[in-house]
Each structure stands twice: as structure tokens, then as C-alpha cells.
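Late entry, written up from scratch paper. The run itself happened at the end of the previous shift, but nothing got recorded in the book at the time, so transcribing now.
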Amino acid sequence: MSEQDVSKMKELLKKAGVEPVGLAEPPRDLWPMMLARLAPDATRVPWWDWVLVAGAGLVLWFFPAVVPALLYHL
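Output as recorded:
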């Protein structure tokens, strides 16, 4: 590209309102927020999961003949 083409391209970009890439900076430091999102937080188990586990335990307690069938299908 010639110098004339480059200057014309710069003018068109200024008219369009496009900022230079190297000058755009975030308004604040983003690393603390990123580290907070990546930090391992405590795993929360919903209450209905505990209900399902209790129900499965009761089924196995009252119907022990189901255990060999379950093991067969694993």
C-alpha cells in the first residue's frame, strides 16, 4: 500500500469512530475479578439431591434383591 492509501484509510477509520487498538485500556484491573471467578468455592449440593440419595438408600434397604440386579447392569 502506498502512503496515500494508508492516510486515506486512517481518515476513514477516524470518521467511522474506530479507536486505535493499542490505546484501548480497560477501566480497572481485571485480574482480581478473574481470580475470584476461578477460585474453587465450596460445592453446594441442592436439597433434592439429598432426597434422591435417601430414597435410593431406602429402596436398597427395603428391597435388597435389587442390589444384584443393579450390579449386573453396571
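Helices lie at 3-16, 31-38, 47-62, 66-73.
(Scratch paper discarded after transcription.)
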